[in-house]
Amino acid sequence: MPKYQKPGLLVKSIFNPFVMLLTRVGLSMRGSRTLAVRGRKSGEWRTVPVNPLTLGDARYLVAPRGSTQWVRNLRASGTGELRLGSKREAFRAQEVSDADKPEILRNYLKHWKMETGTFFGGVSDTSPDEDLQRIAPEHPVFRITPA
Question: What local confidence, expressed as pLDDT, does residue 1 receive?
Fold first, then answer.
């Protein structure tokens, strides 16, 4: 069964709504965005705060908590939007293979360790490649390109 770390009460009821409010009014916390993706069953828009990563000329979404609902919805739809204020950025998503994740995870942890490092089981941006490869299957990664 795919790994999923449910958000605690503090994250679910205070932190995520606060970040969503900021992005809704056009303020980004260190590059955060609201991810909007259609529900795989309902077809309704579902939103969650995310931390997109730019690496070279590529952009990625990393799921620190594992196979979350947004991951499952994005796998089903293959498309979504990144939102900041009134700006909507439609994208297509392609899941990255586990073999290609270590460099992405290392860079994600360099940028977002303070906010999400606890979900990576003690692995950090300075960990050996073997450790990043070991945790790669637990953290879905999507390369996103403009739709």
Answer: 52
